[in-house]
Specification:
Blueprint lengths: L5 E5 L3 H13 L4 E5 L3 H8 L10 H12 L2 E4 L2 H7 L2 E4 L7 H4 L9 H12 L7 E5 L6 E2 L6 E2 L1 H12 L3 H4 E5 L9 H6 L3 E6 L3 H13 L6 E6 H23 L2 H7 L3 H9 L20 H14 L3 H27 L8 E5 L15 H11 L2 E5 L5 H10 L10 E3 L4 H5 L4 E4 L5 H4 L2 H7 L6 E4 L6 H6 L4 E4 L3
Helix pairs in contact: 1-3, 6-7, 11-14, 11-15, 14-15
The chain binds 1,4-dihydronicotinamide adenine dinucleotide.
The site of 1,4-dihydronicotinamide adenine dinucleotide has 29 residues, from helix 1 and helix 6.
Length: 476
Amino acid sequence: EEGKFTVCSVGAGYVGSLTSIILAAQQPNLKVIVCDVNQDLINSWSDQRYPFYEPELDRQFDIAVNQNKNIKFTTKITDAIQESDAIFICVNTPPKKDLISGLGKESDMKYFDLACQTIASMGDPKKHRILIEKSTFQIQLNILGTVPVGTHKRIHGILSQKLSNPDDCYTIVSMPEFLAEGVAIQNLLFPDRIVVGTPTDKNGMETFEVIKGIYSNFQTKFIHVKTASSELGKLFANAMLAQRISSINSMSQLCETTGASVQDLSKIVGSDKRIGQYFLNASPAFGGSCFEKDLQSLVYILESLGQTDQAMYWSQVLHMNQFQKRRLLDMIISEFPNPSETVLTIFGFAFKKNTSDTRMTPIAYFVNGLIEKGFFVRIHDPQANERGFYLEMEMQGFDIAERFNFQFCGSDYNKAVANSNAIIIGTEWDEYITTNYRNIRDQMNQSRALFFDLRSIVDEEPLKYLGFEKVFKLGN
Ligand code: NAI
């Protein structure tokens, strides 16, 4: 036990816990500590209850906890830092609330700053540590508003407030996390690349070697670059992924009006090796905790630096995302002349399939828009929970506290579809392809029922046969 190289993650959320569990499972030579200020979350991990849904987590968790026995979860953050040779910062950097209304474009860095202050207080020139930022790059403008500074500079600034010689205590490294929820375990076991951004000096080279050592059992390509490249690279990667979704979404209405099919387009274009098949599915919009935030950041940086045309280019990716939601919401509303006598069922509230995560889910916009119009809205999701539902509606600025015309039904189909006038597929869960729609149609309103597949995952013909008056399939 003693003498083992020890890493700790500050933050036991999606990134902190999953990266740590995989590291502990794959590297029995390491000692791994996961710490968080949230006692409930730590209790949950310690009691082997998963605080969120992620496929294939069980096996890796079992290897780490029961086989290697080299991971622990704790709220004793300073103790964890004290014991560690390398520290991963994996705390949340949520959008500031006014970001959603479009007023501000920065992330809320208060949790991040607080974590850095705790780390600073543990600085010790006698024990040099590696400090690794995994939280998404957040750029800040300096007082003059001309020079953008990256996260590493922000950390350095905070360390300098407490430590006279921060560089003797910590080497700051950027290692952006590329995992995608829903496929996180595979992403972490077999990463496309591990990006390591360090200072360019001798210390930076040595630090890179230590980090390669931490990941010695992983078969992957290491990309060693300077810190600024690593930080900006992550931002650009997310912008590119979001851009692909907006690009395919921008074609969906054209397909609907010309008789083409957007899935055919994805197949045709995605078969081109230069383009690739992933991230080309039409949808009501992209969501999740990173894409919108990172795009906003990119646009904000570009605007602040006077790179206006580039800012306009990337802001169109965001615009398309908003536009698609508005277009589809209006289309649904236009089908029902009497909202107060209409029940609508939304299938899916998670921002994508195979995760319980609802942060920045596009479905919140639909729920709110339909409730405001006076429809009775029922929401079904196999994994998302009621608490997450209310939190996210509030987070996105939708005040539904005074409303009574909705019901969150969790995974209960019967409750969700009873006497309903429409099914709206919002999240592409596999079970929405295979569920027994004959059964569902029987429980729905007998005189009028419509079907809106906003993820293009079901076949229209069998549904029409079951008596759905209209079957809308996005991009078809
Ligand atoms: P999360 O919200 O799931 O977890 C963050 C955790 O940090 C929370 O449990 C919170 O209690 C804890 N925390 C906050 N302040 C703390 C402190 N001072 N000391 C100890 N713990 C503290 O967030 P998530 O999703 O893990 O994201 C973390 C960062 O990684 C964010 O910057 C995010 O943008 C980025 N990221 C997220 C990805 C994702 O798929 N979720 C992928 C890649 C990057």
